[in-house]
C-alpha cells in the first residue's frame, strides 16, 4: 500500500519552482522585468572586455547615467565570428527629454537615433590605471561612422560602439607594419647599396678630380678679375663724376648763350616785321601800277623772298628758345 502524498512537500516544490523561474528571469533577462525605471541598450564591442564587470558605470560626457547589467559572448554562424554583447541600463531619471520628463520605452528608439545622428558612440575607457577596470563612455565621435552588428540579443535595441583608444593605436600600428611588410625591402636595400657604390666611384673618378682642379682655377681667375675691377672702379667713378660736372657746366653755358641771343633775335624779328610791313605797302603800291609790274616780276619775287626769310627767322627763334642746347650739339631729328 502506497504512502499518502504529503501536501507540504508538494507546496514546497511548487514554491521552489516559481522561485527558480523568477531567479532565471532576473539573471537572463538582466532584471528588465523588475526595473521599469531603466532603459536598456546592447553594445557589441570588438575590444577586449578584460576589466569590464557587471555593475561598471555608464557615463555620458562625464555624467553617470547607468550601469552595465549583462556581459556575454554571442556566436554568429554566418560570419563565423564571436561577438561580445554588453547590456547597459540607463536610469530614466538621469536622461530628461525636451518635455522636462523622463523618457519612456516608446521614446528610447527615437532617443537612440537622435544620439547616433548627433555623433554619439559607446567606447570602453579605463576607470583607473592601477586597477585596470573599465567603464562604458558615451560621447561624441563625429569622425567615427556608426557601425551596427545587426544581431538580435534578447530583443534589446543596439547602440553603436567603437574601438578603444589603445586598440585604435594598435590597429593603426598593425596596418603600418602590414604596409611595411608589403614593401620590397630587399630590392630597396639593393638599390640603395648600388647608388652608394656609384657615388663612391664618382667621387674617386679622374673626371671629378679634373673638374675640381678646373673649378679651382676658375675661382682663382674670378678672384683676380674682381680685384682688378675693384682697383679700376674708383678712377672710373671719378672720371664719370667729372664728365657729369662738365656736362652740367656746358648746359649752364648754353642757357646763358640763349639768354644773350634772345634780345638779338627779338630785334631781328622786329626789324623783319617792319620790313615785311613796308614791303607789303610797296607791293600794294606796285600792284596799282598795272601791267608794267606783273605777278612774275622781279620785285614781287623779292618781296616774297623777304617774307619767307622773316618766317624762317621766327621759326629759328622759337626753336632756339625751346632747345638752347642745339647751339652746341646741333639740331636733332
From TrEMBL:
Keywords: Membrane, Transmembrane, Transmembrane helix. The chain crosses the membrane at residues 6-28. The keyword Transmembrane applies. Residues 38-139 form the Mce/MlaD domain. The keyword Membrane applies. PANTHER family: INTERMEMBRANE PHOSPHOLIPID TRANSPORT SYSTEM BINDING PROTEIN MLAD (PTHR33371:SF4), INTERMEMBRANE PHOSPHOLIPID TRANSPORT SYSTEM BINDING PROTEIN MLAD-RELATED (PTHR33371). This is Mammalian cell entry related domain protein. The lineage of its organism: Bacteria, Pseudomonadati, Pseudomonadota, Gammaproteobacteria, Methylococcales.
